[in-house]
């Protein structure tokens, strides 16, 4: 882990401090003096660390995308199933009306469970 310019606990190398008042709290922040070269070096190190972390995340991001695609496919299948089921229920209703039966009676006559 990289040394941060800011710290919330005073160390012997800290030569600057500041109090920040926020929502009825007082925070003391301590940091060491820094020159531009050290800041640039730390930025480069942070960018390198970010790249390494992004590379470690890549397999998981790919897996999440694959799972999302699978989920979308399942949702499309459920939608298609529901459309087919609704169409069948309409036909059963029309058959029941044509035969002078209730929908429950038509289900029994067709040997279809009501929870199908």
From TrEMBL:
Q: Which residues form a coiled coil?
A: 32-84
Q: Key word DNA repair present in the record?
A: yes
Q: Which domain of life is it from?
A: Eukaryota
* One GO CC annotation: Swi5-Sfr1 complex
Keywords, A to Z?
Coiled coil, DNA damage, DNA repair
An annotated GO BP: double-strand break repair via homologous recombination
Family the UniProt entry places it in: Belongs to the SWI5/SAE3 family.
Q: What is this protein called?
A: DNA repair protein SWI5 homolog
What is the scientific name of the source organism? Tieghemostelium lacteum
Q: What is the lineage of its organism?
A: Eukaryota, Amoebozoa, Evosea, Eumycetozoa, Dictyostelia
């Amino acid at each position: 882990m990289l040394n941060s310019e800011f710290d919330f606990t005073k160390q012997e190398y800290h030569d600057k401090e500041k109090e920040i008042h926020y929502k009825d709290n007082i925070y003391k922040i301590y940091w060491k003096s820094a020159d531009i070269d050290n800041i640039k070096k730390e930025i480069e190190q942070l960018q390198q660390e970010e790249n390494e972390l992004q590379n470690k995340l890549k397999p998981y991001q790919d897996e999440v995308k694959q799972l999302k695609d699978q989920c979308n496919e399942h949702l499309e299948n459920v939608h298609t199933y529901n459309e087919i089921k609704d169409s069948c229920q309409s036909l059963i209703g029309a058959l029941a009306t044509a035969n002078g039966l209730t929908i429950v009676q038509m289900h029994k006559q067709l040997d279809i469970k009501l929870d199908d």
